[in-house]
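Continuing from the previous page...

OK, I double-checked the sequence for Amino acid transporter transmembrane domain-containing protein against my notes and this is the correct one:
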Amino acid sequence: MLPQKQAEEAIVSNISEADHEGKEDKEEDESFFSIKNALWHGGSAWDAWFSCASNQVAQVLLTLPYSFSQLGMLSGIIFQIFYGLVGSWTAYLISVLYIEYRSRKEKENVSFKNHVIQWFEVLDGLLGPYWKAVGLAFNCTFLLFGSVIQLIACASNIYYINDKLDKRTWTYIFGACCATTVFIPSFHNYRIWSFLGLGMTTYTAWYLAIAALIHGQDEGVVHSAPTKLVLYFTGATNILYTFGGHAVTVEIMHAMWKPQKFKYIYLIATLYVFTLTLPSASAVYWAFGDQLLNHSNAFSLLPKTRWRDAAVILMLIHQVCKLIHSNAFKLF
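Thanks. Re-ran it with the corrected sequence; updated structure tokens here:
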């Protein structure tokens, strides 16, 4: 533990010196940039918490009731808690490796002022080039499938408001819009996106829970899950995707002024996410039961109201925020 603590202190010292030099150079312009910094240039523990919490849940929030219809209520709750805690432990281990890698490089006088450390670089520095290739392949695969899933999710959501265009056309439209996210420099510039994204997810989660409770149980509702092993496995995999987005953990830490504080941030963010996913998924599954087996998107079973339309629009915006978090500059 002592070497790790020394590494953390060295990193904090270097960052503090860089911040002090930057403040001296920009002191005269501080008032001019204060608003910009408040919205754009974040690196605090709160910024990291918002990034972690908003990055965990997006479109999957709408499919968790579908997973409950495959797993059953009890298994759905257990898997969420289990994967969430395992994900937090994984994030903690990644943070330890990041601190070790960065301390070694800074002892070699390597500067990270214009470079963002990524996960495959940590593997390269600690384990060698073979593991770097494995990490890079994982990142590419995660980004490819994650982006496709999120773009299809955008198209599926907007279709509930405007069905004049088919879902494939909406996918192309959102793909073109989200491609512009590569112009965002780094995770320091995600402060406003993280805040908005988490607010939108919070609204949608509680809308689902309250709307389902107000609707009540459908007549003759049946809760038969689990019935098939393949459905059980599919539902568990979907929940794993909720709490398995660790590909951006290193970038979030690198954006922090004091990355040693990341140790428990991911866990606290996960606990907050539980307050969104567990009530919403449980309430919708309680209300509609086995009907969800044929409706993977929870919006499709809830009545069309201005509250639902607001949730759809907010989830569309959040999907863009999610793509910004996941994709911008991850391969450069």
